[in-house]
């Protein structure tokens, strides 16, 4: 009726309109803006519309945009803009240095960075080409012809074989399966490996073979391309018959065909217009937080540079105003009479002279370090390699390595990501009796945290272990259930497992070779459990389920039983249960049901309160052990009751139009520790139900918003009250998607954020991909903390891209999330190694690299600054141009790269054993302004030592020919001392020293000496090295040179040595404490001690734990200094309260370490 009225419109209005004309080109009509018309199997008709091709591109650049866009990315960095300005200044006459000094390093840095960008984009291009060149069969004439995916066009008829991926969004026409159905795996979309059923229209079932398919000339009228994965509206016009289309007939690109020999379909959307590609947003250009803070540091250094130049400019104005004849100024010179002009030109002269204070090679060195960390360390870590799927970890970007060491909030997709979509039958409760002897990983973890020893029962002889079944209890296995108090109830449970499902069996009808294809991993595990209990489901037809039952009538007897399936009530979010009505061979009618505990319990018969109570206790125990719970029940039906119900069921089924999605907060709460105080904000309240019953959408929205606002404020007040208590419970927030939509309103967003930050865990149920991204952005921008998102499907892409760091789960769960992520791992558990090991190490390494670059360049530039005081601030250079140019890129470059690659404060095992160490990254302990000030003080001290000691002592020094040292003799000697000091400083700041440290440090010093020998030994008319000609030979001919090289670096490093000693002794970092604990241990961690038994009282357990804390200093074995007692840190790791004693430091300072002598 609605369609008819909309077409007729208002007749009176139509008479007043100007008549319109429709131009017909064959049978092609102009495309309506809100509708797409596709002519199947007719490329000529689709040609004028110019649909997009099926080729995809995920690259960041192309041939034309690489250079401009790549340079734009490079000049987003403040340092590169700075050096571009310095390079331009060096081309002017006011520059005291050669232009090559600044232009050459900048060009090299940009070249290396662009090569790296080109390499990473080339990898993306190769991946795109491998996808675009995959083959698919299309119909040409009356035969199937293979073509590349990129040549596929809208309207083509395609043939997709089993296990192949769909190359585009395809309208499902026919299948080799009966009833026109096929099974689709949507792992690339939602991360779930369970199979979805798609059904073709009955009108198109016959178009299966090429001869018949060539006759198909349908017309598809559907919606325009959009990113909604779960909706599709349209019509199929076949021989003037219009058939409605739904999502059940649409096969999305990226999904794969399962359990079907092949299907035939028509292409609807191609390339970037497919739904999955419409969801793939352009990858955001992410910069690490540390890199942004580095920009602030560079701005600070630039301010220091301006201050130094300002001091020099003012000093030059004062000095030049005097009548000093040696300056060569004449009274007629304009500059002589203008102090402002003198200061102005001197200012810019000094900027070019002091430009090395900002390290030009810093960014390229960091990029090189990050790239090697990603490709050689993260990608090749065997601890993150999943052997079953042959999937290693993958760092898809190298820009965010250190960000992994500072993550404070983790956003995770719940079901598939955490459970890996793998389920095992582990325990059960039948009639109030619990079965199953295993211990879960969570139970082991709880025991270890409580210092208890876990007693695991040995698996019984002949215990069965296979995929989906990890159950062991002799009371039920091999027919022993017949001896239980209620064997009939056990039998009904096993039959329910074998009958109440939609699983499809594949392969030979034998327990060893059969393969179950299930719509969810839960169903596969339950059917596998039934098989191992002796109820083997081996065959299915549309109306019958065949089960091979063992030990039912007597032990050892096996019989095949055919159960007629009368009705199947599928599981959905509203019913929260699945039911099957079946008829036994003897005519018995039984309803089997399985579902959530709350919906099953409320439907149990009267008189079962005791069983209900005991079973609920078992469920709570199973849930606290980390198990996913499910309840099963059955009911015998009489024929009259069933017939009456079946009529109503058929009527309800035919009237059903929409599937209203409800929420299951109870299931979501299983993820939360039972000791937490839970705030549940749900749309299933009485006030909201009443508004929904009235049906006024405006009223519903108003009521929900008011309820959410009230609950948020109430929960926040209660949370703040708990936060002010000494030992309040941990807090958790559970909110459903409908309420979250209103909670994200600008007026409530701050309240939601405050409540979330006060909670230990937040669970958002049934949320859309957009809401996931909104919540992530809310915390990222509102809390200004580093966030990490991890997911396994296309519905997690927005969340992954919204966080600082995005992690995709690869392997069985598909690749859509991986393609949008920054890092990819095969399983959720690998996140421990990625964060606690690689993330923490990367943060520590990059921080040390940045601080070292800052220190060595400041030290070098300050010696030039001190020299300006002796030259009347004239801008005279202290070092040769090539010395200044090669200082960063050659003489001090390799040791810092080795530091960034191999620095390791504690081993990987200790990093995971003491997760508290990760907090150093969250607190940003190694990149604070206090740390910057310490390094700056060190630079000032070392520059003064190197400059003053050499210049003062060189006044009386003479060379072998009896002449005093000149400027270039002194500057070369100072430069040599600096190169030695800053390179040896690397060894002093390293926690782990490898052979590469010695090779690069010694090699860098040797490289300078070799360069000096060559450079000082040659001269040409075009070079400016006539000043340093033969200098190194003159210096090395004196004893003073060798004495200075030994004394000056040692004295300059003495201050750092003393500071590190004081810091490690009195103000240690957490990692230094752990080093002291385990200094006698090898890299492998010792086994955890779980010898404290339950019989100890809390006071005895505390005394025992404190007694086990380290009490003596250890022998020095590679770390710089010994440390005093750290009982408070040790105790906090073990959960024991041991306050710091005021006399600890003094007592331990008076102790001497006594090495233990091993007994012979």
Automatic annotation (TrEMBL):
Regions that span the bilayer: 297-320, 340-364, 849-867, 887-906, 927-950, 965-984, 996-1018, 1030-1054
Keyword Magnesium assigned: yes
Domain of life: Eukaryota
Bias kind Polar residues: ranges: 1-12
Record localization: Membrane
This protein's UniProt keywords: ATP-binding, Magnesium, Membrane, Metal-binding, Nucleotide-binding, Translocase, Transmembrane, Transmembrane helix
Catalytic activity: ATP + H2O + phospholipidSide 1 = ADP + phosphate + phospholipidSide 2
Tagged with keyword Metal-binding: yes
SUPFAM superfamilies: Calcium ATPase, transduction domain A (SSF81653), Calcium ATPase, transmembrane domain M (SSF81665), HAD-like (SSF56784), Metal cation-transporting ATPase, ATP-binding domain N (SSF81660)
Topology term for the membrane: Multi-pass membrane protein
Pfam family, one: PhoLip_ATPase_N
Domain P-type ATPase N-terminal: 38-102
Domain P-type ATPase C-terminal: 818-1068
Record region (Disordered): 1-22
Enzyme Commission numbers on file: 7.6.2.1
Main location: membrane
Protein family: Belongs to the cation transport ATPase (P-type) (TC 3.A.3) family. Type IV subfamily.
Stated name of the protein: Phospholipid-transporting ATPase
Source organism (scientific name): Brassica napus (Rape)
Origin organism lineage: Eukaryota, Viridiplantae, Streptophyta, Embryophyta, Tracheophyta
């Amino acid at each position: 009726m609605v369609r008819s009225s909309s077409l007729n419109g208002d007749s009176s209005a139509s008479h007043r309109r100007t008549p319109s004309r429709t131009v017909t080109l064959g049978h092609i009509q102009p495309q309506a803006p809100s509708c797409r018309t596709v002519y199947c199997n007719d490329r000529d008709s689709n040609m004028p519309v110019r649909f997009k091709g099926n080729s995809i591109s995920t690259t960041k650049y192309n041939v034309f945009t690489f250079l401009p866009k790549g340079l734009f990315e490079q000049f987003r960095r403040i340092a590169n803009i700075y050096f571009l300005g310095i390079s331009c200044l060096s081309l002017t006459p006011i520059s005291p240095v050669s232009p090559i000094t600044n232009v050459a390093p900048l060009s090299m840095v940009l070249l290396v960075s662009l090569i790296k960008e080109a390499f990473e984009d080339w990898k993306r291009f190769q991946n795109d080409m491998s996808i675009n060149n995959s083959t698919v069969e299309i119909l040409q004439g009356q035969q199937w012809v293979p073509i590349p995916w990129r040549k596929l066009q809208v309207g083509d008829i395609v043939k997709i074989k089993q296990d192949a991926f769909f190359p585009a969004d395809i309208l499902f026409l026919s299948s080799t399966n009966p009833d026109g159905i096929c099974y689709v795996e949507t792992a690339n979309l939602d991360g779930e490996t369970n199979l979805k059923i798609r059904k073709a229209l009955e009108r198109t079932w016959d178009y299966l073979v090429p001869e018949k398919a060539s006759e198909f000339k349908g017309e598809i009228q559907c919606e325009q391309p959009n990113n909604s994965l779960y909706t599709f509206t349209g019509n199929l016009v076949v021989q003037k018959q219009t058939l409605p289309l739904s999502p059940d007939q649409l096969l999305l690109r990226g999904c794969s065909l399962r359990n079907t020999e092949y299907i035939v379909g028509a292409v609807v959307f191609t390339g970037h217009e497919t739904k999955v590609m419409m969801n793939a947003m352009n990858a955001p250009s992410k910069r690490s937080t540390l890199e942004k803070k580095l920009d602030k540091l560079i701005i600070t250094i630039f301010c220091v540079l301006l201050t130094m130049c300002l001091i020099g400019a003012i000093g030059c104005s004062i000095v030049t105003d005097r009548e000093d004849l040696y300056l060569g100024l004449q009274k007629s010179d304009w500059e002589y009479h203008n102090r402002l002009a003198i200061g102005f030109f001197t200012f810019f002269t000094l900027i070019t002279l002091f430009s090395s204070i900002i390290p030009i090679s810093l960014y390229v060195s960091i990029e090189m370090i990050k790239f090697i960390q990603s490709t050689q360390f993260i990608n090749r870590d065997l601890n993150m390699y999943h052997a079953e799927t042959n999937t290693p970890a993958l760092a898809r970007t190298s820009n965010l390595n250190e960000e992994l060491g500072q993550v404070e909030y983790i956003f995770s997709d719940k079901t598939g990501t955490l459970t890996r979509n793998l389920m095992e039958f582990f325990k059960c409760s039948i009639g109030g009796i619990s079965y199953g002897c295993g211990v879960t990983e969570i139970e082991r973890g709880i025991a270890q945290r409580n210092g208890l020893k876990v007693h695991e029962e040995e698996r019984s002889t002949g215990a069965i272990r296979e995929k989906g079944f990890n159950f062991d209890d002799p009371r039920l296995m091999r027919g022993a259930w017949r001896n239980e108090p209620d064997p009939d109830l056990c039998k009904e449970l096993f039959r329910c497992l074998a009958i109440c499902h939609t699983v499809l069996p594949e392969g030979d009808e034998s327990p060893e070779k059969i393969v179950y294809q299930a719509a969810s991993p839960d169903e596969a595990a339950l059917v596998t459990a039934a098989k191992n209990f002796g109820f083997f489901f081996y065959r299915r037809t549309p109306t019958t389920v065949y089960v091979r039952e063992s030990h039912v009538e007597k032990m050892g007897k096996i019989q095949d039983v055919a159960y007629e399936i009368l009705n199947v009530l599928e599981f959905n979010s509203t019913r929260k249960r699945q039911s099957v009505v079946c008829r036994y061979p003897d005519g018995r009618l039984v309803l089997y049901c399985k579902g959530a505990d709350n919906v099953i319990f409320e439907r149990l018969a009267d008189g079962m309160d005791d069983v209900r109570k005991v079973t609920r206790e078992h469920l709570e125990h199973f849930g606290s052990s980390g198990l996913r719970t499910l309840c099963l029940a059955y009911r015998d039906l009489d024929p009259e009751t069933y017939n009456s119900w079946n009529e109503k069921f058929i009527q309800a089924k035919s009237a059903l139009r929409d599937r209203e999605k409800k929420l299951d907060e109870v299931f979501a709460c299983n993820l939360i520790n039972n000791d937490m105080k839970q705030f549940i904000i749900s749309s299933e309240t009485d006030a909201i139900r009443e508004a929904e019953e009235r049906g006024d959408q405006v009223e519903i929205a108003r009521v929900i918003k008011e309820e959410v606002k009230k609950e948020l404020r109430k929960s926040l007040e209660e949370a703040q009250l708990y936060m002010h208590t000494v030992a309040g419970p941990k807090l958790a927030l559970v909110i459903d998607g409908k309420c979250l939509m209103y909670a994200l309103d600008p007026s409530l967003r701050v309240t939601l954020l405050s409540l979330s930050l006060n909670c230990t865990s937040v669970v958002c149920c049934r949320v859309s991909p957009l809401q996931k991204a909104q919540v992530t952005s809310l915390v990222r921008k509102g809390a200004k903390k580093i966030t990490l998102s991890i997911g396994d499907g296309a519905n997690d892409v927005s969340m992954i891209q919204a966080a600082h760091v995005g992690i995709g789960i690869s392997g069985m769960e598909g690749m859509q999330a991986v393609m949008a992520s920054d890092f990819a791992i095969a399983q959720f558990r690998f996140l421990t190694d990625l964060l606690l090991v690689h993330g923490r190490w990367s943060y520590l390494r990059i921080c040390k690299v940045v601080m070292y670059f800052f220190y060595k360049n400041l030290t070098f530039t300050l010696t030039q600054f001190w020299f300006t005081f002796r030259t009347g601030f004239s801008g005279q250079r202290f070092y040769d141009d090539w010395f200044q140019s090669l200082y960063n890129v050659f003489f001090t470059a390799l040791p810092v790269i080795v530091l960034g690659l191999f620095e390791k404060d504690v081993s990987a095992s200790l990093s995971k054993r003491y997760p508290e160490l990760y907090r150093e990254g969250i607190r940003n302990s190694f990149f604070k302004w206090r740390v910057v000030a310490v390094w700056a003080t060190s630079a000032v001290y070392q520059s003064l030592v190197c400059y003053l000691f050499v210049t003062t002592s060189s006044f009386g020094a003479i060379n072998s020919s009896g002449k005093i040292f000149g400027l270039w003799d002194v500057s070369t000697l100072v430069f040599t001392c600096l190169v030695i000091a800053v390179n040896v400083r690397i060894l002093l700041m390293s926690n782990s020293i490898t052979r590469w440290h010695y090779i690069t440090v010694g090699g860098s010093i040797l490289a300078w000496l070799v360069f000096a020998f060559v450079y000082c030994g040659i001269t040409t008319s075009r070079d400016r090295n006539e000043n340093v000609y033969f200098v190194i030979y003159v210096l090395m001919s004196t004893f003073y040179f060798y004495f200075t090289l030994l004394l000056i670096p040692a004295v300059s490093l003495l201050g750092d040595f003393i500071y590190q000693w004081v810091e490690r002794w009195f103000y240690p970092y957490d990692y230094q404490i752990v080093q002291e604990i385990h200094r006698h241990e090898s890299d492998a961690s010792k086994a955890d001690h779980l010898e404290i038994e339950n019989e100890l009282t809390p006071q005895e357990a505390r005394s025992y734990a404190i007694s086990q804390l380290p009490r003596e200093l250890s022998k020095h074995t590679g770390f710089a200094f010994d440390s005093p007692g750290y009982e408070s840190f040790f105790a906090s790791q073990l959960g024991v309260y041991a306050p710091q004693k005021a006399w600890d430091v003094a007592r331990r300072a008076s102790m001497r370490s006594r090495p233990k002598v091993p007994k012979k």
